[in-house]
Amino acid sequence: MPTAARLMAAICLAVVGYILTQEVIALMPDRTNFGYFMQTNVALGLAVGWVVMGRRAGRGTTSAINNGLTGVVVLIFWGLGVQSSYEMFRRAMGNRYDGPLEALTAIFQLGAEFGALMLTPTVGITVLVCAVVSGLLTEFAGRRWK
What we know:
Oligomer: single chain
Radius of gyration: 17 Å
Number of helices: 5
Number of domains: 1
Shape: elongated
Structural class: mainly alpha
Order of helices and strands: HHHHH
């Protein structure tokens, strides 16, 4: 059921997805072709905010902060999963893998590589600040507009 908390959470995580994507793009080499990288991560932010964070609003300030942290971690998890799956598929179309099992294990290897790329202080601070702000805004919307 649509609620103000779900809408606020979806908007907040879409913005978080946009901000984190901009930071990741800055970490990558200049010649990298990103394609629909930004749009995919913003759409994932909308979906995760609506489904994960929005339904957990209205439980207090501490729960709001935990809700924000959970939402951002889930967004990063799904973002890494989707982007590494796409990269595996792109490489598989170039016949880089000998079989399906090698291609499936490449998803996890690529996800670990992409995740390691994100382990910088700038990204970490951004994740924490955005998570807290998103959780608190979602909680405010849940209490304000029932």
